[in-house]
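Review form for a predicted model. The reviewer records the input and the model, then writes brief findings.
Reviewer: anonymous (R2)
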Amino acid sequence: MSIEQCTSADSRAHDDGFVNQASRREFWIAALASLLFSITATHSTLVAVAFGRLGYSLQQIGVVLSIIAFPVVASTFCSGLIIGRFGALGAMRLSMLLGMLGVASMALTSDAFWPSLASRLLWGAGVGFFLPPTMVYIQSKLTQKRFVYLVSAFSATVPLGLAFAPAIGEFTLNHFGVAAMFVTGAAPAAIAFALTFALRPLEKPKAGGGLGVRAAARRWHLFPVLALFVGGAHYGYAASYLSPALEHAGTALGWFFVPVTFAMVFSRVGAMRKLSQYHPRLLAGGGLLLTSVSLVFAAWSASPGFAVAAGLMLGTGNSMMYPVISAWMGRGCPPAQRGGVQAIAATAFYGGIYATPWPETWLVAGFGYSVTQSVLGVIGVAMAATIIASKGEGE
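Model under review:
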């Protein structure tokens, strides 16, 4: 390619929001790798089924499912340290390697309870390390033009894995057994790991090596971080308790969960093209408002139409929160601080997902599903109003 052609391609890429043509190519390679890794990570949806067939008790299955919370939250919080030490690309590779080994080792350890917990810890560490360095890497490939939209579009690869993993896992489990399911589940992460060698590493920040928490702890980050925690709690409730809540109300699960997945992907790839012109504060608050109303809708109506509406609102609201707030906090952030900022954002979101189901259990036991969802909805509406009204974002 001639110098003139390279210059023209770089100019077109820059007009589309990328640093240059090479950055555009790396953005899409990273997106494909992210999708593949998310397919491996979301094989968690098959763990309960597989372990049930192996004869484990419900209590043992519950421990295997929930223990992943500890490595996910801990590794996410420490990811700023890993990014500072190995760079964003090196941290991405480490996360993919850990996730791949964690899932693949389940083929050997699933017959024994304690070894299977060790595999799940490894699996969780891979999941926790993944998102912050990946967001740091792709954000470095973008200009300020279309920044929020492109970050949101990229993040659609994470929920999109849910469209593939259950079908792949179920087919493999039914035809070839538990061990084959875990080996097959690890294969996408192996391909993703190989794809990262087509990416150029970022220049390592001069001030690296720490957790990055102090650099990320800007005053105006407080409300976005709290919004991520509350939004994560909403998503965590939906993943943990909405299935029995809908069954209790006599509503088929598909009326809610199919629209959720559709809305997550469509809103990030399609709707955010238009919505990204609005201030991130409005998008984050609007997203949290939608997830709040969604839980209330699902709480007080057994109608399939209301379940569909609730699913669409939860998927859209969730999609307007994490990627938007991640981009908002990372936009204009010096390279040395990006790892810490993304670690804090992801930790808040994962903390909401994994830390709140246990206290929510007490609310469900004492007052029922509808009241619990209403309480979460009211908290979310209050937080949405707070972040919309907040000022002084440092921009």
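Findings: The chain is about 80% helix and 0% strand.
Further findings: The CA atoms of residues 40 and 185 lie 5 Å apart.
Recommendation: see findings above.
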